[in-house]
## 1
Amino acid sequence: MAASNLKVASLSLFVAFMLTIMPLPEWVVEFRPDWVTLVLIYWAMALPAKTGVTIAWLAGLMLDVSHGAILGQHALGLMLVVYIVHIQHQRLRVVSLVQQAIVIFFLLLLKQLIVLWVSGMVGHAPVTWLYFMPTLTGAMLWPWIYIIMRDIRRKFGYRVDY
Amino acid sequence: MQTLFLRGPSATLRMIILVIISLALMTADHRWKHLDAVRNTLSYLLYPVEYVVDLPIRLYYWSEETLGTHQSLIDENRQLRDLQLQSRVQLQKLDILEKENERLRRLLSATPKTTEDHLIAEIIAVDVDPYRHFIVLNKGSIDGVYKGQPIIDAHGIMGQIVYVNAMTSTAMLVTDVSHAIPVQIDRTGQRSVAFGTGQTDYLDLRHIPHNADIRVGDKLISSGLGERFPRNYPLAVITNINRDTGETFIDVRAEPLAQLDTSREVLLVWTQNHEKPTPGLEQPVAQPVEQAAEEPVEELAEKHAEEPVEEAAEESSDGGE
């Protein structure tokens, strides 16, 4: 059970990484939501016993490598977001999708800010408000992501952790 | 489930440990840049993702070649043959000039200018950070790619390699905010440094005084002073000069010649400098081949005998036109 559980989770993570590096037309690039963070937030909410901070941290390191960023930059942000979801997963589950999306907005904002601060410290922070667009698009897409991921999880017959 | 009561504190503890590790990693990566091994290992995991993302595009090119009509292939073939003829005619002339140049260098007992090695690499169609100008290439350390290696396309310098993995490598384009390249103006030999701006369509030229002879349309070539880029490769064309008398230097913008957005194939260049850095034996002449060939031998010999290497480079290129 645990092994196949991991299979679906890692497959969804693989797809999230694909969506992250998939080439897009110039004008939508800045709106690309942070897929890896969104997927990990879902798994941290549904299967908190299996999706912990360590997995989030490793996924963050991979994001760093794919972005050519400083190692640890995305890892730190992603891990902290997943940590918050991890300890609050029971509260997050019972609220409505819209309320969830609002919480997700602030979580994504936290991650973007951590990444921005580190970029600023090493001297190449982007200087446009568009930098925060992925936060907004991610939060707006959250209800759909949640429903799709839940259906996938149910289709494979995994029950949520308590 | 069995960890019901342990979960909370253990997650918090792990979080704190990972925060500390992250901070240590970031410091280590930024200050000492010794984490290439970690990056390399993680890139193995990332490679399948990059491969799958790139697959449809590769399929598209493949099908275009395979399913192309007979007529269009013949047309393309004919065009390419014409082009090859033209380039070969130009090369003939260049070949003679190069030989002549080498002879002159030997007369001056200067280090002979060595040829560079090239390798064609393909850009893997992946998007990285939208605020950085990075591209991923399909050649890595197996092919001998090294950190700091220059990459060019048919029109000019594109950038340099910043991370080398086993099968892929990441290159920073000249337009990235943290990129700078020493250049000189083709026409006058005026030296400067071209800084990336984060915009794909222009570079910033800094430290150019008001009295400098510089015009819109001047071509910028690499000066080779940083010992990273080979010299005399075209980089950009000056598009905009803003002379504000209140400022110490003039504000110059140049548009990169290389097709940074649309190139699919790039050329990796191995420079002599990288393989065998021999201090004190820098190549002394920093001017285009044609000029070197036209200048009388005695004049060149005098200059190089009397002046230190760097000034000689400046002088001879100043006197070129």
## 2
Amino acid sequence: MSIKEQVIAIIAEQAMLEPSDVKMEHTLADLGIDSLGLVESIFAIEESFDITVPFNANDPTESDFDISSIASIVDAVDKLKTEQSS
Amino acid sequence: MRRVVITGAGTINPLGTDVASTFEAFREGRCGIGPLDIKDVDRLSIQIGGQIKGYEEASHFNRQQLALYDRFTQFALLAARQAISQSGLTFSGDLADRSGVVLGTSGGGLTTQDENYRAVYEEGKNRVHPFIVPRLMNNAAASHVSIEWNLRGPTFTVATACASSNHAMGQAFNMVRSGMSKVMITGGSEAMLCFGGIKAWEGLRVMSKDACRPFSATRNGMVQGEGAAVYVFEDYEHAVARGADILCEVAGFAMSSDASDIVTPSKQGAARAIAGAVNDAGVALDSVGYINAHGTGTAANDKTECAAVADVFGHHADHLMMSSTKSMHGHLIGGTGAVELLACIMALKDRVIAPTIGYEESDPECAMDVVPNEARDAKVDVVLSNAFAFGGLNAVIALRNLN
């Protein structure tokens, strides 16, 4: 599975939706994912990709990890994986 | 002071997944204790317990709920659903604001702690699930019951080891009695049957490797159990006004501290709580027909408890029945008083006294009618439920038929 597919699978499970219902332009709020769901999604991403996501729940928008849309999350994971392997 | 009645009861415990099946097991003197089915059981010297077998959490809760519900919370929620459904109450407006939840537990989310210590220490993981704290906290069960039923009044958890549930129900009783609350959801829950939960108890050397035989001369210790029981304690006039079915009246409650030893029980401390509950109920000593004993099956508890009852009741101790249902469901620690209150309700309502099973040989230090091995038909009007905790904390509840 590609990073994009894996991220979508994680988000879909959290939102209790089919992966095909998750679009790249969606925000987490669009999908009904609240703050607890976000923290759980971050955890699932860290576990799946074996990365550490720089995310502080006190101020989610100020983190280096951009969670403004599914596309931005995929990009951020991709960047962390690239940094990890370099 | 207002009168307090019970208008709903629910449970899940080693004997059954509801009140009716638990009563049936009590009547049949069935044993819910057996080989433990848990991880690393081969490294335990104690390998039996009152475990709830065939329990599938996914058939009761969805994935997101399970991320937040430790096993002890699950048990509490299932028992609360039964109790509140039976009561027929719904909570909104002023009633919701004046109704709350007081639950007992000793270990809280101990299974969650056990699993995650295992992950970070044994498996060397450096990351844990984000919900460990809300899952393991002792008040999680009370909070989730409050959330699920919109109970917006006083809500908290009481942790006094083996007396937790009785202390919790005593608080609920007095809150309704004083008029502070119209309805309180109360009882207790425990889910300690995990490797660490049993290993710690093993260390005390008070556990039996084969059976819980309270009051029998052959007794050799306690056996742990798990589960929950939850009740609806309601203002009597409120219950009558809405035409509710009333199970029985909560008549009295008393608590005491031994102020002596952290584990060894005291006859005087227990006796003060027992006598206190009878006095608080405003009934005569000889009106008490049945006591659900703390009856752990340890040498120390059972003889101390019998001596305390003899001191309080004098000659009447020879005429009352006292059984320990721990012989069937094990010791549910912080949830035990709640499950044991079911035997008291059965005695009042169904006129059947639950037995002390596994009773083999009389002990002169426990010379009471312990209703050995077989349930008994008997009409009783006032019953007591004893709980005596490590730490020397005693809590006794009195119930009676509503006349």
